[in-house]
Design a protein that fits this description.
Layout: H1 2-32, H2 51-55, H3 62-73, E1 76-79, E2 87-90, H4 93-102, H5 134-147, H6 156-172, E3 178-179, H7 180-197, H8 212-224, H9 229-232, H10 244-270, H11 277-286, H12 292-323, H13 325-339, H14 354-366, E4 372-376, E5 382-384, E6 387-389, E7 394-398, H15 399-402, H16 448-463, E8 466-469, E9 483-485, E10 489-491, E11 496-501
Parallel strand pairs: 2-7
Antiparallel strand pairs: 1-2, 3-11, 4-7, 5-6, 8-11, 9-10
Bound molecules: protoporphyrin IX containing FE (HEM).
Length: 503
């Protein structure tokens, strides 16, 4: 009886706190002068809000769980995972357009995960610095000058060489079962490092092997957005209860040291010039416009943002093609018809390979590697879809759900690259918000242009003159297409297959 009474007492206190909290919020909005309602969403518990969702249905694949919330509450949903700020979820093309076009200026920040604060990384990170920060602007100009448009023609020969290396690697593995993703990750790292430092980071003979640089980037990528109780309950952050930030700090520290020892210090010592990103940032360093720490943080972000994303997209495309032999046949027919006996695919061949490019787009529609694009409301409250979105709210665009919206995509679950050919040739940029795997607006992915070249190039290179088989008597329908949302959208079962070189 005594125990029951104390439980009832605790429940009463929690309910009272919750009611006070709701009343305070209501009163504040009245004082703010807004009469717009907040977006609808699941009712949270006192104090912990909707936290239980995040250790339950949303733990493994939040993009799927959040798509179900949108089905229940509509295209703009709000919820509160813990005592941290409100989250708003955007899940329709129209709402995404309103967020990224009409409200772009107000959404130029990103939520900062507790891990990102390790070694003060967030203070120099191009990924999380607010859009108003002069350092963010400086970094975006540096990236834009080397990673977009015609400037990419300068580095094209290096990507041709990287694509040729991976083709040779898989041809040399002919008839042997391989992990498809391992070599793809090495090649994606090399394609980024060549624009940054004019150098491969993984040796051509070791593409399929473990490598310290690769291991560190893989670990940093996996841990960047690892679920962490400190993010739901910021008052616990100083304790770092899961040790997440400490572990991230150790990995970051190793990576910073590696970047400095192998790339930054030697270039500073010799004063060599290579007409690349490192030249550009060292020139800014010489004028005291950047610190040494700004440089390592920037380079770290470029590897974390640019390599796993590209490698995973090619791995997803391969998984879909192995699952759909008729589409694989179309790819081989296109390659044979346009390249004939040419030994290796070059970037300039892509104009003749529309089907391969459509395969990549269809892959990014179904498996966008950043399924939930994170933004944050800065400077002022905003109105979205007739709802009030207070300053400080974290806004997530569920591009995974938008890419499967049946109103925009007939038979949305089917892998049909043909939908990206002909009249309905939706592109990555442009006004169609039913397909935005690289985001949009001021914070659009600055790697879009290089990815639009290199991802189809990489895919074509590992398919040209190579016939892929499934191992252990697997049938196409046995290819596992289930996903696992770590920082990026990973395959739940890493793809293994057997390359057969067609001489
Ligand atoms: C298939 C490949 C890729 C995909 C699907 C992808 C997707 C994305 C998405 C969705 C965003 C957020 C955009 C937004 O908020 O609107 C982003 C940001 C970013 N991406 Fe990519 N990305 C890819 C490759 C790359 C590459 C190759 C690089 C550079 C080497 C890169 C560098 C970045 C950076 C630095 C940001 C942060 C930009 C900022 O916050 O200002 N990405 N990417």
């Amino acid at each position: 009886m005594g125990l029951w009474a104390s439980e009832a007492c605790i429940a009463l206190i929690l309910i009272t706190i919750h009611v006070v909290f709701v009343l305070l919020k209501y009163t504040r909005r009245k004082l703010d002068g807004t009469s717009l309602p907040l977006p609808p969403g699941p009712v949270g518990l006192p104090l912990i809000g909707n936290f239980l969702y995040f250790i339950g249905p949303l733990r493994r694949n939040p993009h799927r769980g959040l798509a179900c919330l949108a089905e229940a509450y509509g295209p703009i949903v709000s919820f509160r995972p813990g005592t941290a700020k409100n989250f708003v979820l955007v899940s329709s093309p129209e709402a995404a357009r309103e967020a990224l076009v009409a409200n772009d200026a107000g959404l130029t920040a990103r939520p900062v995960a507790d891990n990102a604060r390790a070694l003060a990384h967030s203070a120099g990170s191009v990924f999380v610095l607010p859009g108003s920060d002069p350092l963010w602007k400086k970094h975006r100009i540096t990236i834009g000058a080397r990673f977009s448009g015609r400037s990419l023609n300068v580095t094209r020969p290096m990507r041709d060489r990287n694509a040729r290396q991976i083709a040779e690697h898989f041809r040399a593995c002919s008839s042997r079962e391989v992990s498809v993703g391992e070599a793809l990750m090495s090649t994606a790292l090399n394609s980024v490092s060549n624009v940054l430092f004019s150098k491969d980071v993984v040796d051509a003979h070791a593409l399929g092997e473990a490598h310290v640089f690769k291991e560190l980037v893989v670990k940093l990528t996996a841990d960047t957005a690892k679920p962490n109780i400190s993010d739901a309950f910021p008052f616990l952050a100083p304790l770092d209860l899961l040790g997440s930030r400490r572990s991230f700090s150790r990995t970051l520290d190793k990576f910073y040291k590696l970047l400095n020892a192998e790339f930054v210090e030697p270039r500073l010592a010799t004063g060599e010039k290579h007409d690349d990103v490192l030249d550009d940032i060292l020139a800014q360093y010489a004028k005291s416009q950047l610190t040494h720490s700004d440089i390592t943080k920037f380079l770290t972000d470029m590897f974390v943002a640019g390599s796993d994303t590209s490698a995973l997209t090619v791995q997803w495309a391969m998984a879909q093609l192995l699952r759909h032999p008729d589409k694989m046949q179309k790819v081989h027919t296109e390659l044979a018809a346009n390249l004939g006996s040419k030994e290796f695919v070059e970037e300039s061949d892509l104009v003749q390979l529309p089907y391969i490019k459509a395969v990549v787009k269809e892959t990014l529609r179904l498996h966008p590697v950043t399924p939930l694009i994170p933004r944050e409301v800065v400077s002022d409250d905003m109105c979205l879809g007739g709802f009030h979105i207070p300053i400080g709210t974290s806004v997530f665009l569920n591009v995974w759900a938008i890419g499967r919206d049946p109103a925009s995509w007939p038979q949305p679950e089917e892998f049909m690259p043909e939908r990206f050919l002909g009249d309905r040739a939706v592109d990555y940029r442009g006004s169609d918000f039913s397909f935005k795997p690289f985001g949009a607006g001021r914070r659009v992915c600055p790697g879009l242009d290089i990815s639009a070249r290199f991802v189809p190039h990489l895919l074509a290179s590992i398919l040209h003159k190579i016939d892929w088989r499934l191992p252990n008597g697997m049938a196409p329908e046995d290819v596992d297409l289930s996903d696992n949302h770590r920082t990026n959208l990973d395959l739940a079962t890493p793809l293994r297959a057997i390359p057969m070189f067609i001489a």
